[in-house]
Specification:
The structure holds two protein chains of two kinds. Helix content of chain A is 70%, strand content 0%. Chain A is mostly helical. The chains are: A mainly alpha, B alpha+beta.
């Protein structure tokens, strides 16, 4: 249990650092960016403490807001994603997900891909809607969400494959 | 009582979620309101320190551009030195007792964002260097933004690429005023609004800061007129201004301490109180 906790703390710090140092500086066409730091929420152990997940996600989002000067948008998006994660599990893996041991960082099956897709999409929609905060930017929000989701999924899958040997 | 406790224990996760959602939504809404600066910002020792370290590495990549800019500014200053204006023409006495209207603090951009609707810049000087809220920030090419939050050693700046930013500006040759805003689309262009249709404007005219603002001194370069529209249903122009500055590549900046500022604000407040 404590080793799982250590892995989580390690992931929290490393993903936040990588996001701030590398991915916050990557902008394609000026408005497409990727946020692979939410891998922390996606990869959080399935049957672990949910209260811990919600609190740590809030702290993760708040740290991102501090670095990006974005008010509270990242914190809101992260808390919503953390709370609705079990529902996304049910949607992607079927009702009995808690009895299986799901390991996301294994080979990419359609279920795992759909889980990552829905999670990233939920996070990005909340993030960009709150960031723009006005209805006249609806097309802008949709465009940003679409392209940033694609980019985040690509970088997330690359990161999952890169860190896989360490997890064994 | 027992039931209340039971309810709280049974729904602890949901209540926690609602509490944290409320806090973060509150922070978001607070940050979108115009006149208040944000609670969570990057002017603190943790994020400021991290950005300063990152910037130390990044600086090397921009040395060439930075050098070019310095050479250009040197050339401009030299030309001013060699082509002195006619000394018989008296300069306008805009100060009394030899007090300079503005002081300058040199600072460095350690973090710059330009990919959202509300962009902020982080600088590596703060209260210890005398930076205060609402000071203007410029560089050798033109204006950059207005100081928002300060900590002991760092400060955040509302970039002109921020939809909340509003700066008084004018057309250099004709003194017609307008307010400078950004529509959130292109990082190379800002919009000058509320210019009356009486003004004669051509493509290529220079836009500079106006004297009505207490933040910037008059006559600092902003950009050139690119396209001119008429706002539908009004008698005002909306002008697309092409910035002199490349806002995606900022190095050293100057923070302007406007000396008459507090006096002016106090005076204006007094007149307003009398009115009421």
């Amino acid at each position: 249990m404590s080793s799982a906790l250590l892995v989580n703390i390690f992931r929290f710090i490393i993903l936040l650092a990588v996001q701030v140092v590398i991915f916050n500086n990557m902008n394609f066409l000026g408005y497409i960016s990727s946020f692979p730091y939410i891998l922390y929420i996606i990869l959080y152990p399935v049957n672990s403490n949910k209260t811990g997940l919600i609190i740590s996600s809030f702290l993760l989002g708040l740290s991102m807001d501090m670095f990006c000067n974005s008010g509270g948008t990242h914190a809101t998006a992260c808390v919503i994603l953390a709370y609705y994660r079990p529902y996304i599990f049910k949607f992607s893996f079927g009702l009995s997900y808690e009895y299986q041991t799901i390991k996301l960082n294994e080979s990419l099956t359609p279920e795992r891909f759909s889980f990552i897709l829905v999670s990233v999409l939920l996070h990005h929609i909340v993030l960009f809607v709150l960031e723009a905060f006005q209805f006249k930017f609806i097309w802008d929000i949709l465009l940003r969400t679409l392209f940033s989701t694609i980019l985040t999924i690509i970088t997330s899958i690359i990161i999952i494959y890169l860190i896989k040997p360490n997890k064994r | 009582m027992q039931q209340i406790f039971n309810f709280i224990i049974r729904n602890s996760n949901r209540l926690l979620f609602l509490l944290l959602l409320g806090i973060s939504l509150g922070l978001t809404i607070q940050s979108h309101s115009y006149h208040r600066s944000r609670v969570i910002n990057s002017a603190n020792f943790l994020s400021g320190g991290v950005y300063e370290r990152i910037n130390r590495v990044n600086e090397y990549l921009n040395l060439r551009a930075e050098n070019d800019e310095l050479v250009l500014e040197n050339a401009r200053l030299k030309s001013l030195l060699f082509n002195k204006e006619d000394t018989s023409k008296m300069p306008l006495p805009d100060t009394i007792k030899g007090v300079k209207p503005a002081d300058i603090i040199v600072s460095k951009v350690i973090h710059n964002s330009y990919n959202s609707h509300e962009n902020f810049i982080t600088l590596n000087s703060g209260r210890n260097e005398g930076v205060k809220q609402d000071m203007g920030v410029i560089n050798s090419l033109g204006i950059v933004g207005v100081v928002d939050n300060t900590s002991a050693n760092y400060s955040t700046v509302v970039s002109i690429l921020n939809m909340k930013s509003q700066i008084n500006a004018k057309i250099k040759k004709s003194n017609h005023f307008g307010s400078l805003t950004w529509n959130g689309k292109n990082t190379g262009f800002v919009q000058l609004e509320d210019v009356p249709r009486l003004a004669s404007i051509r493509k290529g005219d220079t836009i500079v800061t106006g004297g009505q603002s207490v933040i910037f001194p008059e006559g600092i370069n902003i950009g050139t007129v690119d396209k001119i529209f008429i706002k539908t249903g009004t008698s005002y122009y909306v002008i697309n201004v092409k910035l002199f500055n490349d806002m995606t590549n900022l190095g050293h900046v100057y923070i302007i301490k406007s000396k008459g500022r507090e006096e002016l604000i106090n005076l204006e407040n007094k007149s307003k109180e009398k009115d009421e």
